[in-house]
TrEMBL record, chain A:
Source species of the chain: Zoogloea oleivorans
Signal peptide boundaries: 1-21
Segments passing through the bilayer: 37-57, 78-101, 107-125, 151-172, 184-203, 215-235, 291-315, 327-353, 385-413, 434-453, 459-483, 490-513, 525-549
Protein's cellular compartments: Cell inner membrane
Membrane topology reported for the UniProt record: Multi-pass membrane protein
Record bears the keyword Cell membrane: yes
Protein's UniProt name: Cation/acetate symporter ActP
From TrEMBL, chain B:
Protein name (record): DUF485 domain-containing protein
Keywords of this entry: Membrane, Transmembrane, Transmembrane helix
Domain of life: Bacteria
Record-linked InterPro entries: DUF485, Inner_membrane_assoc
Organism of provenance: Zoogloea oleivorans
PANTHER family, alphabetized: INNER MEMBRANE PROTEIN YJCH
Gene Ontology cellular component terms for the protein in this record: plasma membrane
One Pfam assignment: DUF485
Transmembrane segments: 25-46, 58-82
């Protein structure tokens, strides 16, 4: 009751803040007004979330409160929070930008992000909730020797979190640079600092509620944008697509490369341009070859089931039923969101690419390609709505970064400190202190990495995190829960092999070896866009091979313990309940 | 004590029924999701022209309804599983727990 009142109060404050800002801006010069509206709305969001953090801090007394909000989140709330974690600024800005640039390819990309959810629902959600407590290592290491499995899980978590964090920080820097006219590094520092406040004081309770509010705001904002785009075309997708193709054809006619090609081959430029324009309606160069396509699809599908900050959310609900409801709601919201993003991307073609206000002297989008959705907000809803979407996008980054940091901090404090160093004898207060110190350290690292990776495409960085999650975390989790003969040795060696393979193959793939490291084109050793088909196979085969080779007494015991684990994972008897209530 | 409980649960045919029913259902659903998604991906990889084909006189390609269809399928199949798991399977589970702990 209290929390729902809190939300309504906050929404009311946000709404009134928007009205005030709108009133104050009337009659001012456009560019100036834009900035102040955005800043005002973001200020309101920060004030509101600080209020929530203060409330959450009063409830965050034990390690259980810090990691899982005391286990008292409902399935519906958690579904929104999971969707919030997943609908990161990288996916919102990145996918709408991909659709604007390449049309249909963006849809293929978005679908990949969605299809992991049913797999989690059918195979993982219930077992995760029944076996787990705070981190996914609790599940993966249920019957295993704690030190090695925790060391692996912490590594898997931290590497995934690091890549995902970089993507978020880069997004934040670009966004605020564009909106507030601040230096890139300052924007990154602001995100780092605010996020640390949420996590340090409010733990999972604050992180969850910030995430829920943001998810609601983002879904509302994106719905409005898609609605405004569709209304322009009389709710006819065909009319929208036709206009987009027409605009893309027009742009292709002026494209220097295409003119050159026409001159060289003697083909008619109009024919070439028409083909180029129409290419947004079908699959293009995004999927280069079948191996890359399958590999990338696997990374997105199974990576979802290995993302530590998502897995952690299954421990915030009271039981398996609510865990299932969480994924159900999350799937609904995320699927709906990606359909919106697709419409927004096409909206950006028709509204943004045709309007010189959003383009620089060279005809390139101001603030970079990832700003498609932000400019569209201005085009369909004016300054006030631009302010709203900017504030929401920034809030999105903040919330996702907070969730990631929380999961990184719990890997260090719960898996490494409490279980490995203290052998499970750490008291709650000491564990909490370690989480908070780790939060600060991770915050600083995130800021440094965010600055170091300024020029990377953010949507692409996220796919790296997915490949690692799918190759290391997912196989270990899957095999330890479902395969009787899995042993500590098998899980740890196989998991590390998957982790190393996915990182190494990514480094020698064209996108990193050639683009980032500046080696000559064609020199990359690994020709495919995603390592997952190979690295995930290495992970699974490694686990299988080193498990069956393991003939130690420990291994025999671990196999015998599977029976008890199975009963708990199937029935939930003995599962850690809604603690702290 | 704990082993007693485990043995009692294992001996209960309802538990065996729960595990085999729910797991086979889960795997069938997983398989259908894999078939739909990788079918789509293979279509993208091997037959781009098919997806780029026009549905009618306009510019809309067959790929659009197919892509949106995959999204809707994903949501619907998840919903169907959860519905059955939260009613039928959870009822069966509650019976198993009740009979084992009484």
């Amino acid at each position: 009751m209290r929390t729902s009142k809190l939300i309504f109060g906050l929404l009311a404050v946000l709404a009134s803040g928007a009205l005030l800002a709108a009133g104050a801006d009337m009659g001012q010069v456009e560019k100036q007004a834009t900035n102040w509206t955005a800043i005002a709305m973001f200020g309101v969001f920060v004030a509101g979330t600080m209020f929530i953090t203060k409330w959450a801090a009063s409830k965050t007394k034990s390690a259980a409160d810090f990691y899982t909000a005391g286990g008292g989140i409902t399935g519906f709330q958690n579904g929104l929070a999971i969707a919030g974690d997943y609908m990161s600024a990288a996916s919102f800005l990145g996918i709408s930008a991909a659709v604007m640039a390449n049309g249909y390819d963006g849809l293929i990309y978005a679908i990949g992000f969605l299809v992991g959810w049913p797999i989690i629902t059918f195979l993982m959600a219930e077992r995760l909730r029944n076996l787990g407590k705070f981190t996914f290592a609790d599940v993966a290491g249920y019957r295993f020797q704690q030190t090695p499995i925790r060391a692996f899980a912490a590594s898997g978590t931290l590497v995934v979190v690091a890549f995902y964090l970089i993507a978020q920080m880069v997004g934040a820097g670009q966004l605020i640079k564009l909106l507030f006219g601040l230096e890139y590094w300052m924007a990154v520092v602001i995100v780092g600092a605010l996020m640390m406040v949420y996590v340090l004081f409010g733990g999972m309770t604050a992180t969850t509620w910030v995430q829920i509010i943001k998810a609601v705001l983002l879904l509302c904002g994106a719905s409005f944008m898609a609605f405004m785009v569709l209304i322009k075309f009389g709710f006819s997708p065909e009319a929208m697509f036709a206009k987009a193709v027409e605009i893309k054809t027009g742009l292709a006619l002026k494209d220097a490369k295409l003119i050159e090609e026409a001159a060289k081959t003697g083909k008619d430029i109009a024919v070439l341009a028409a083909a180029k324009g129409d290419s947004i309606m079908g699959p293009g160069s995004f999927v280069k070859d079948p191996i890359s396509a399958i590999s990338f699809g696997m990374a997105l599908m199974f990576g979802t089931a290995g993302l530590p900050h998502i897995l952690m959310r299954f421990f915030t609900v009271p039981d398996a039923k609510e865990a299932r409801k969480s994924v159900g709601w999350a799937t609904v919201w995320i699927g709906y969101f990606y359909i919106l993003t697709f419409i927004i991307g096409f909206g950006a073609i028709t509204f943004v690419l045709t309007d010189p206000t959003f383009l620089d002297a060279k005809g390139v989008l101001k603030g970079g390609g990832n700003m498609a959705a932000i400019h569209l907000a201005n085009a369909v809803g004016g300054n006030v709505f631009l302010g709203f979407i900017s504030a929401v996008a920034f809030a999105t980054i903040l919330a996702v970064v907070a969730g990631l940091t929380l999961s990184g901090a719990s890997a260090v404090s719960h898996d490494l400190y409490a279980t490995v160093f203290k052998k499970g004898n750490a008291d709650s207060a000491a564990e909490l202190r370690v989480s908070r110190i780790t939060t600060i350290v991770l915050g600083v690292i995130a800021v440094v990495l965010g600055i170091a990776f300024e020029k990377q495409n953010i949507a692409f960085m996220v796919s790296l995190a997915f490949a690692i999650a799918a190759s290391a975390n997912f196989p270990v989790l899957f095999m330890s829960v479902l395969w009787k003969d899995c042993t500590t040795k098998g899980a740890v060696i196989g998991g590390f092999l998957g982790l190393i393979a996915s990182v190494a193959l990514t480094v020698v793939s064209p996108s990193v070896w050639e683009v980032t490291l500046g080696n000559p084109k064609g020199s990359a050793w690994f020709p495919y866009t995603s390592p997952c088909l190979f690295s995930m196979t290495i992970g699974f085969v490694g686990i299988w091979l080193f498990s069956i080779l393991d003939r130690s007494a420990n291994a025999q015991q671990e196999r015998a313990d599977f029976a008890a684990q199975l009963i708990r994972s199937e029935t939930g008897i003995g599962a850690s309940g809604a603690s702290g209530h | 004590m704990k082993d007693d409980l485990g043995d009692r649960i294992r001996a209960n045919p309802k538990y065996q029924e729960l595990v085999s029913k729910r797991n086979s259902y889960g795997w069938i659903m997983t398989l259908s999701m894999l078939v739909v998604y990788y079918g789509y991906i293979l279509l993208v990889a091997f037959n781009k022209d098919f997806l780029a084909q026009k549905t009618g006189a306009g510019v809309t390609s067959i790929g659009i309804p197919i892509g949106v269809g995959v999204i809707l399928f994903t949501i619907i199949i998840t919903g169907i599983y959860i519905r059955r798991a939260n009613t039928e399977f959870d009822d069966l589970k509650a019976q198993v727990i009740k009979e084992a702990t009484k």
